Each structure stands twice: as structure tokens, then as C-alpha cells.
Amino acid sequence: MARRFSDAVKRLLVGRPFRSDHFRREALPKRLAMPVFASDMVSSVAYAPDEILLALSLSGLVALTVSPWIGLAVGAVILVIVLCYRLNLRAYPSGGGDYAVASTNLGTRAGLLVAASLLVDFVLTVAVSMTVFAGYIGAMIPELKPHKVVIAVGGIVLVTLAGLRGSASIRRFLAIPTYLFILAVFATVAVGTYRVVTGDTPVAATSGYSVLPMAEEETALMGLAAVFIILRAFSSGSVALAGVQTVAMAVPGFRAPRGRNAAATLLLTGALSACMLVGLTWLSAVIGIKYVAAPSEQLVARSGSPIGADFEQDPVLGQLAQAVFSGFPFMFYVVAAVAALVLLVAANTSVEGFPGLASRLARDGFLPRQLASRGDRLTFSNGILLLAAAAAVLVVAFRASVPDLIELYLVGVFTAFVLGQLGMIRHWTVRIRRIVSSPVRRRMQLNRVVNGLGFVLTALVLVVVLVTKLAGGAWIAVAAIAVLYLVMGLIHRHYTRVDSELAPDEDDESARTLPPNTHAVVVVTEIHKPMLRALAFARASRPTFLNAITVAVDEDAAVRLQDRWDEMDLPVPLTILDSPYRELVRPVMNHITNLRRRSPRDLVIVYIPQYIVGRRWENLLHNQTSLRLKSRLLFVPNVVVASVPWRLRSFTRARDQLIRRAGDIDAESFRELR
Amino acid sequence: MARRFSDAVKRLLVGRPFRSDHFRREALPKRLAMPVFASDMVSSVAYAPDEILLALSLSGLVALTVSPWIGLAVGAVILVIVLCYRLNLRAYPSGGGDYAVASTNLGTRAGLLVAASLLVDFVLTVAVSMTVFAGYIGAMIPELKPHKVVIAVGGIVLVTLAGLRGSASIRRFLAIPTYLFILAVFATVAVGTYRVVTGDTPVAATSGYSVLPMAEEETALMGLAAVFIILRAFSSGSVALAGVQTVAMAVPGFRAPRGRNAAATLLLTGALSACMLVGLTWLSAVIGIKYVAAPSEQLVARSGSPIGADFEQDPVLGQLAQAVFSGFPFMFYVVAAVAALVLLVAANTSVEGFPGLASRLARDGFLPRQLASRGDRLTFSNGILLLAAAAAVLVVAFRASVPDLIELYLVGVFTAFVLGQLGMIRHWTVRIRRIVSSPVRRRMQLNRVVNGLGFVLTALVLVVVLVTKLAGGAWIAVAAIAVLYLVMGLIHRHYTRVDSELAPDEDDESARTLPPNTHAVVVVTEIHKPMLRALAFARASRPTFLNAITVAVDEDAAVRLQDRWDEMDLPVPLTILDSPYRELVRPVMNHITNLRRRSPRDLVIVYIPQYIVGRRWENLLHNQTSLRLKSRLLFVPNVVVASVPWRLRSFTRARDQLIRRAGDIDAESFRELR
Predict the structure, then answer these.
(1) pLDDT at B85
(2) How far is B86 from chain A (nearest CA, A)?
(3) Do residue A582 and residue B647 have CB atoms under 8 angstroms apart?
(4) Other CB atoms closer than 10 Å to residue B563's CB: what's the count?
(5) CA A227 to chain centre
(6) How far apart are the C-alpha atoms of A655 and A665, rounded to whole Å?
(7) What is the pLDDT of residue A240?
(8) What is the pLDDT of residues A6-63, one digit of tens each?
(9) Do B643 and A622 count as a contact with CB atoms less than 8 A apart?
(10) pTM of this structure
(11) What is the ipTM of this complex?
């Protein structure tokens, strides 16, 4: 009952149960699927330029001029990888992304590594998106800037609740922010470019400042250090690539032909993201926007005076919008608000995508099996809550600092990329061997070259990410991936072992060889209605032998019980078990064990009345002995424990109250209880 | 398995299971019963004089001269009450003390009030005894004085472990400290008196000091204030009476004739305690021993200089021993050590007495029924742990201050006394009416007068305790008693209601009217050995209808299952339940509910395979769905849930390991698992 009540509370909070596979069956057309599944990738434009500038700023002002080139490099990588992934999506249109590709072509271990990487990155996507979200909220309402952690965690809560409700009707609205965001970014870039071209170059808040390099890197942009800085900026900018995985995982959500549609969406999204990223980095370089690690130390006004300790810099996109629409501040708010919204959508997409991967892993035996049925609300919700909790912990631990969180990011994404591309190379190699027709063969060879290029490129980026970020925090992600990999491996080993243990033998006759006799035993503590029902049920099952047993904890009481039994003329013999230690459980156990020893092949069914109470605390007053007895009896071989429920009036009352309170919210759920 | 393992650990810690009724069956002769059960009463001599002196010291030096008279008054009360209780013990020789007397004669509510009072006082006895114990340890080893709280809590832990082991062989040794303590006290008083008489009056550490009254009570010993101070000292001294209840509760532990033997013990103990108390208060007054609330403020040397902030006063008995055996310091250590030991015995007696009262209350339906069987180690231990935890909390909360704890004491003891005596008056009144024989009648009337005197006296002391201590801390005890009274009342009401609900009706035929048909349903998730066993067991119970059901969470898997089923030619039809929401539990529930609706009078037995795992974490990987299904099915009327256990190899392995590790400590316990 208590569970039913908490169910009802949950329902009030997160809404009616829904067909969780709703959006699968009612798959989305491209115009809706693109914005929803691509929100992750598109939204990265809201923080990727910042990370490029920040990484460069460590070596001072000069370095910042490199930013458009880095933007261009990242954009190029996006396009190449997107082109590669179109092949992946078409080859594996049933979804699963790199996990499916890697486990099919490279074996279980590779698939498992991909899965662990993706699980970690789901968490990081939510944490990063919501931290950036807090940054945009702060840009709009400066008073909220000191409360970034609270806002980021609030965003996680919001997204989690939305994920738990998971209503399909909301999903349609999710498309709007993505479209608006793309529009807003292009408008900003276009108007900015127009002003630059017409000589009316916009001036941003940080345009007038110089950037000092961070102390230890004064000699930067020379030799190896310069390469390192640039690679670091490049790897930070690569966050724009994380969204590729989200689209790849979401293939089953597309309308048929799913693979082709997903591939088209991916290409479109990739092209748009690349354009926006290049446009934004170029424009911010022209305007002279600064984004540094420590504003109060690094930013210096032309006059030479530092900027002051309380200066809080806004995200690059926010600064750009402010500069470009300088005569029309309303547009700044529109851009910032739309950016905040698209980040929420992106986080939401991750939250909803997570159970999909988890259920796939559970079906393959890497996670507890109860996670496998995606439609099962309970486990579905538990997965989302786990994800949200992990993301919230990260946000709090890193005090909602985007640069710090970015350090952890990408290891997982690129590990998945590399293994996915490697898997595809093998995929083509296997197929090429089998095919004779030369045009098909040639196309496949071409595909293999494309995926090979993707492999080399992603492997390079992975190396860059590891080299530039491992010490900075990526080791945490690596450790998390390793732990997940190990745990899932152990779970898999356990399930495999148990499966082989439980597999029926050839010509298994165990379902046909019946125990020769059944002994029914009714455990009696008192003569009351629940016991009489247990007795009736035991008789109804027509066992070979039936007797009732009671334990003489109190000898007088046992004698009284026997008298009453005889008096009522109950049609079953009553055996009184001696209990020198005044114990209840052990004499019953001994009796059953002896029964089993006398006739080891027979089946023993123990009937135990169990009270169904209305309020949780009542369980403290009832059922304790029967629960203990049940849990002990389960250990005895060939003994079946049958619980005969008796619903106390307090249960019926509590149920009726609940139904009245719940009203028609979920009357359906209570139907079965009548 | 996990439970079994923790059982084994417990066993290693607290010893083999024992016949918990051991010391009842093998009842103690008086020479052993007296010291064990009387230790509580006797040990109070170790702190009662201190409390009298302390209460008086508040009004300065003059007041201290009253102390022997107060000792005498308390001694007199002890004797009167002991005489009254001899009647109680003889009238109710089956034990239960005032609880039995009050509930028999004054009704449930009075009995319940006595029980609540006694439960609170059990806790306080342990807390006070162990705090005083820490005081004596500190008197012996001054370095330990600052660690009183730790020592007191350590004492509680010691006593709790002893109580949990509860070995009868230890019990015999418990008699020794009590005898030694009585000897030591009498030796001290005798030697001291000899030295006083011969003019060689001993000089104690505090003999030379004057006592300043506490600021606000400078005008004490005049009018009402003086009466209040004296009453307060008297009520503090009455702690010596608390032990009467312990003896009264312990009647069943005596050898037959139990009532008479207990009464004799009580009289002897009472007389000894009274003598010791009078002797100690007299001698300490003669020697001029001081015991005050705040030594650094109240004690002033003859020269006028105060005693210094770091002076820690020893208990009165300790100071006396030091003074009396001034040429022979070894005796001081003997007295202090024996006092500490007897306090441990006293606390241990409470710890062991507590489950007795709890089981009696549980049998009468005031506490959860599983506490009723005293032989059940688990609940027996839980009771002791609860008592110890409560006592430890008190010790820590009052920073091991005896005077503060004494404030809470006695309310419960005297509430029980008053109701017990009132019950005895009613007991005699009822009997006197029925009796004609005039000598018997006259004796009963005399008894009634004695108990009447006891009632008046204890009622007076209760009033004194309440008046002088309520504001000081007794309100906490009153509140605790009230809460216990209410909770136990609610539990009782609940049980009464359920009992009447469950009572079989006149000519209850429910055990004879059998359900016309039985439907057996086997829930199938996979074809494996546990399922085949469940199928075989279901068939063995020869139901009217038998079918297997599986839920098509994954349609392809369901089709594969069906194919395999047909291929194996299993002798039971398989029904595939549709699951649009990919749920597992709800379709099964709906199926069962429909079955029930079609034939409401039939019995439905659902067979569910359940894995028995070896390690607790494995439960996360198995059984989750079946557990959820079971808990939901229990709510459906007329459905019996039968768990068919399957022991995984990991269980067998873990069991074998455990047996190997446990060696022969408790091989017996594992016998049933083979």
C-alpha cells in the first residue's frame, strides 16, 4: 500500500504514465527530429568559441588572433566526421550508435569500452550544458551571477522533471528553441559582418582591454609551447563534436528510412554548426572580444589599469550580441534567452537518451536486467535520477566552472568515435571480401577510405585531448570510464555464468519428472481467519499429505490452541513442535528439514498467512516472524513458500482514502486492488 | 545467506546461542539470588549519601549536620516499603512486579502507566549506575577524571556485551562483588566508628573545608526554604529505593517457593541497605566530609582561601575509605574497586531484566508481538541494544553528571510504587469481602493496613520528588513516560482491533468451504532450470487449470520463447501477454485480475522462480522483477504467491566458505542449509 501511495505522489509530480516508446512508434519527421536531436550539437556553439578564446588567452593577446583558424579547423573536423558518420548511420539504422558498431565488429570488449565512455559523457553533457545555461542566465540578470551553482543545479532539476514526465506533446515545442537559436546566431553573425564591412565595426565590452598572458607562460606562442596552446584550444573547441553521438544514438527516433533521414539530419546539423562556429570565432576576433581564465588578473584597460576584481565576463555569444546590436539591447536578451533555452533542450535530450543506452546495455547483460525494459517507468526513472545526481555532483564539485568541466569532457566522446570508425573499417573489410560485383565493391572501398580518414582524424583528436587535458581533469573521466568498464564487465561475467548454470540440459526432463508426493504444511500461530484461509487454500491444492504445525513457545498457549483446534473440529491434524529455546523459527526449520530428509524427492509447500497492512508502520507490528520464516525457508532445497495474503481493514481503508484523494488522476492503477 | 553470515559474526562476538530461559529453569538459591538481584539496591549506597550531602550543601555548612537524620528517614522508608513489598511478592509470585499488581487490580491503563514508568527507569538505572561507576574509576585513577563520559559509555558497552552473551556461568560470579561490597561498606563503617569512639577521629580530604551556600540561598534553613532543601535531600536519598523494583521483577528467577524466597531476600537486602545508608551518613557527618555541587565555588579552606578550580571531589564512600584507612591506602582501592564492580553488576541486572518486562508487555499486546518470545535471541538482543543506546544518550547529554541524572530518576520508580500499593489495597479489599473465616480475614485486614501505609508513604515521596525535582529535569522523565504510555496504548488498540477483526465467527466454516477450482499460473521470463522446476512444482500440486504466462516486452524475444517452448514440447500451454508499454508487472497483474474476475471464488496460485544468491550485491542483478511482482500480487485478493527457490552456485559456494570459516563454532546452525 505504501508503495502504491508513493506511486500516487509521484504521479501527481511527474504526470500520468505514458507509453514510453511513444516517440519511437510515432517517429518524428526530419523537421522535428533535426532540432530535437541536434540541439546538443547546435548548442555547443554557445560555449565552444569561449573555450577556444580562453585556451588561447593563456598566452596573451597575440594568440587570440589565431582563433578564427582554430574555429575553421574544428569546423573542418566536424564536416569530415559528419560525413563519416553518415556511413555509420546507414549501415546500422537500428540505432545504438558506436556501441552497436563497435560491439558488432570489434567484439564485446570494444563495445563495452564505448558504452562506458558514452555513459560518462551523458553525465558530462548535462553538467556542461547546465553550467553554460547558468552563465547565460547570469549574462541576462547580472544579480544572479554569484549563484551559478544554484542555477545550474536548478537547471538539472528542471530537465530531470521534464525527462521524468517525458510527455510527447512537450517534445514538439522542443523544436522551437533550436530553430530560434540557429536564426539568432546567423542574425548576429550577419548583422555583425554587415557592420564590419560597412566600416561600423561593433565595439564589445572587452574590446578595449588588453590580455596579459598567465605568469608562467609569458614566452608562449614560441616553439612547442605554442603548439601545445593551439592544440589545447583546438581540443577545447572540439566540444562542438559531442553532439554527433547524440544524433547517432537517436536513429530509432527518426521516420523511415531512419538511417537515411538521420544521416541527412546529421549532415545538415554538422554544416550549420561548422558555419556558426567559424562565423562566431571570426567575428569575435575582428571585434576583439576577450574571454580569459582570470579576468581580474589578465584583462588590462588600454590605460594600463586592471579591470577590477568584481568584473564577470559574459559568454562570447552574449558579448557579440551586445556589441552587434548595440543600439537595440532587446536583441541581446533574445540571443541570450534563446541560447539558455537551447541548452535546456540539449540537456533534456541527453537525459532522455540515457535510458535508451542503459536498456540496450541491460539487454546485452552489462547492466542489471531490470533496466532492460525501457517501458518500465520505475527503472527508467531511476536511471534518469542517477544521471541527474551525477551531473549535479559534478556541477557542485567544480563550482559550476565551464573550463574545469570541459577538461573532463571529450575523452569519452572521442574514445567512442575512434572505436566506432575502427568498427566501420572492419565492417567494410568483411563485406568487401564477400562481394564480387565491382561497382558495389568500389563503393565499399571508397566508404572504407572515408571511415579510415575518420578514424585517423578522431584518433588524432583523441591523442590531442589526452595530451592537453589529462592532467587538467580528464583523468577523472578516464578513471570513471575504467570503473564503469570493469563493473559492467563483472556484471556481464556474472550473468553469463548464471545463464550457463541455468540453461536446460539437452532433453531436459525436469519439467516432466514430477515430485512423487506433495507435503503441504500450514504454519499456525493462532486460530484466526487468515490461518483458516491458509488452511482452506492448502486443502484446495489437494496435497498428498497435509498437516498444520504450531510451535510451543508458550506451553500453556499451545495446549489451549490444541483444545480450540479440536473443539472447532478442523479437518487437518495439528502437530505441536517443542521449542526448548522458546524460539519460533528454528523448530519450524527443523521440522521441514526432517520432512525433506525422510522423502528427499517430494515437494514441500509451506503455507504462511501474511497480513497486508494499510500503513507502513503497521508492518512493525505484524509479519515480522512470517517474514523471517519465509526468508529462512527459501534456503531449504525443494521447499516452496506460499504466502497467503490477508488484507487487514486498515489496508482497505487506506486504499479507499487514497482512491478518493487521487480522484480520477489514476483510477486505472487502483482497479486491480479492488 | 547474508543474514546467515551476519549471524555468524554475531555469534563470534556474543557467543553461542543459549537457552535464554536457562536461569529461570535452573532457578537461583537465595545465597546467589540475593546478591545478583539485590545488587541494584545495595549499589545505591555508593551514591545515595553523596546526593543527600550535595542537596544539603546548597544552603551551606550548617545544613550538613542534618544529613544523618535524612539518612535515617530514608532508611526508615526503605524498611517500611520493603515490608509492604513482601506482601506484593507473596501475592504475585509469578513475577511482573507492580505491573502485574496494577494491571490485575486497577485495570489495563494503570498497568500500562506502571510499565511505561518502569521502562524509563530501567534506562535511568543503567545511566546512573554507569555514571557513578565512572566516578569511582576516577577516584582510583585521577588521570581518568576528565574522561567520565567515555568511561561511563564504555561501562554501558561492557554491560551490554555481557547482557548479549548472557551466560549463566558468569551469573554465579556476579554474586561475589555484591558480597564484597557489603563487607567493604560495613568494614569502613566499623573501623571508622571504632576510631571515632577511641578518639582517633579520621580526617578526610574535605574535612578541613568550609562550605559556602550557593548565592541565592544564603538565607536557607529558615522557614519554607529549609523544608524544601530538606525534602530535596530526602528525595535524592530515596534513590536507595529504586532497587526494590528490580527484586520484585525478578521473582521468577528465585527457587520455589519463589514469592517467599524473594520476600526474604528483599527484607534482608532492605535491612542491609538501610543500615549501610545510616552508617555512612552518620560517619561522614562526624568526620565532616563535604560533597557539594560546585567545589571551586563552595569549598573554602579554614584560612579563607578557596579550593581552586581544578579540585575534583571523590564520592563520599571513597573519601570515607580514604580517611578511615588513612594508614593503609590499599583498603581505599579495594572499596572503590568493589563499588565500581557492584555498579557494573547492578547495571547488568537491569540490562537483563529489561527483556523480561518487554516480553511480558508484548504478550499483553502493548509492544510488537515479536518481542514476546523471550527466547528469540534476535528481539531479545534488539531490546538490550535499545536500552543501552538510550542510556548512552542520557549519559552523553548530561555529560555524565550524577546529580543531573538523579533529577530524572525516581519519578518512574515511585509512580510504580504508588500504583502497586494501590493495587494491593484493592487486592485485599476484594478478597476480604469473599472471606468469612475471621482469623484469615483479620490477617488480610492487617495486610491491607500495611499496604495502605505503603501507599501513603510512597505517594508522599512521589509528591516530594515531583515538587523538588520536576523543574530540575524530572519533566523529561515524565514526558518520556507519557510518550511511552501513549505509544503502547496505540499499539494495544491496534492489536485489539485486529484481533477482533480476525477472530473466527461462530461456526466459522472458512477452513471447510474450499475454493471450487485452483488456477496455477507460472510466470515465465526465460526457459531455464528454475522455470522448469517452477513448472514441475506447479504440475505436482495438480491444479484444476494450469498455464504458463510470459510478457511480450520484446516481441521478437517472445516469439523465440514460444518456438523454444513448442520445440521442448513442454506439457503446459504458454500464454503470451501483450505489453504495449513494454512493462512486465502490469500485464501479469491484469491477467491475474481478469482470471479472478471470471471466477471470483476460485483460488489462484502464482508460481514465481526466485534465485537464492550467495552475496548480497547479487540481489541487485536478480530477483528485482520477481520481488516487485510478488509485492504487487499480494494486494490482489484470493491470490497465493508461491516462491520457488533456486539456489545459485554462488550461494552454495558462499555457504561452504562460511561453514569452513565458522568451523565448529556453530555447525549446527548450517545443518538445515545442506
Answers:
(1) 86
(2) 28
(3) no
(4) 10
(5) 36
(6) 15
(7) 82
(8) 555 555 444 444 444 443 445 667 777 777 778 888 898 999 999 888 888 877 666 6
(9) no
(10) 0.68
(11) 0.70
Compute CA distances B58 → B46, B240, B280, whole Å: 21, 21, 20
Nearest to A246 by CA among A371, A154, A349, A133: A349
Separation of alpha carbons B96 and B105, rounded Å: 13
What is the residue whose three cell numbers read 514441475?
B536
Q: What is the pLDDT of residue B166?
A: 61
Report the distance separating Cα B185 and Cα B177, nearest Å. 12
| In the block, residue with C-alpha cell 489462484 | B604
**Model pLDDT for residues B409-468, shown as the tens digit of each residue:** 888 888 999 999 999 999 999 988 888 878 888 888 999 999 999 999 889 889 988 888
A161's grid cell:
522533471
Angle at B248 between CA B247 and CA B250, to 5 degrees: 65
Q: Distance from B638 to chain A by nearest Cα, in Å?
A: 8
The full length of chain B comes to 674
d(Cα A249, Cα A271) in Å, to the nearest integer? 19
Chain A residues touching residue B628 (CB < 8 angstroms): 378
| A326 CB within 8 Å of a chain B CB | no
Residues 6+ apart with CB under 8 A from A143: none
Best of B363, B367, B512 to substitute, by most chain A Cβ atoms within 10 angstroms, is: B512
Strand A639-647 and strand A603-612: the pairing is parallel
Question: What is the reported pLDDT for B633?
Answer: 82
> Within a 10 A sphere around the Cβ of A610, how many other Cβ atoms?
21
Task: Return left, alpha or beta for A258; rule: phi > 0 is left, psi -120 to 50 is alpha, else beta.
Answer: alpha
Identity of residue B520: A
Q: What pLDDT, on the 0 to 100 scale, is given for residue A22?
A: 41
Q: How many residues does chain A have?
A: 674
Q: Is A527 on the interface with B (CB under 8 A)?
A: yes
Please report, as a single letter, which amino acid is at residue A29: P
Mention every residue, 6+ apart, whose C-beta is less than 8 A from residue A565. Answer: A527, A548, A574
pLDDT for residue B18: 43
B500 touches A: beta carbon within 8 Å: no
A chain contacts of residue B530, beta-carbon cutoff 8 Å: 502
Least confident of A47-56, A88-97, B642-651, B660-669: B660-669
B506 touching A (Cβ < 8 Å) = no
Q: Is A46 helix (H, G, I), strand (E, B) or coil?
A: helix
Contacts (Cβ under 8 Å, ≥6 apart) of B674:
none
Question: Best residue in B24, B491, B498 to probe A by mutation, most A CBs within 10 Å?
Answer: B498
Nearest CB among B543, B582, B672 relative to A375 is that of B582
Cell of A223: 616553439
What residues are paired with B577 via a beta bridge?
B551
Nearest to B429 by CA among B106, B74, B143, B173: B106
List the one residue out of B607, B527, B538 whose CA is nearest residue B568: B527
Q: Is B553 on the interface with A (CB under 8 A)?
A: yes
Mapped onto helix, strand or coil, the DSSP state of residue A602 is coil
Query: What is the grid cell recorded at A627?
Result: 517474514
Q: Is residue B546 within 8 Å of residue B524, measured between CB atoms? A: no
Q: Given CB atoms, is A25 within the 8 Å cutoff of chain B?
A: no
Cis peptide before A637 (omega within 30 of 0): no
Cα nearest neighbour of B606 on chain A: A642
Mutation target to probe the A interface, by most A beta carbons within 10 A, among B532, B550, B624 is B532
Please name which of A608, A605, A450 lies closest in space to residue A82, comparing C-alpha atoms: A450
> At A521, is the secondary structure helix, strand, or coil?
strand
Element housing A520 (H / E):
strand A518-523
End-to-end CA distance of chain A: 13
Q: What is the mean pLDDT of residues B564-580?
A: 87
Residues 6+ apart with CB under 8 A from B298: B57, B211, B212, B213, B214, B292
One-character DSSP codes across B50-70: HHHHHHHHTT-HHHHTTHHHH
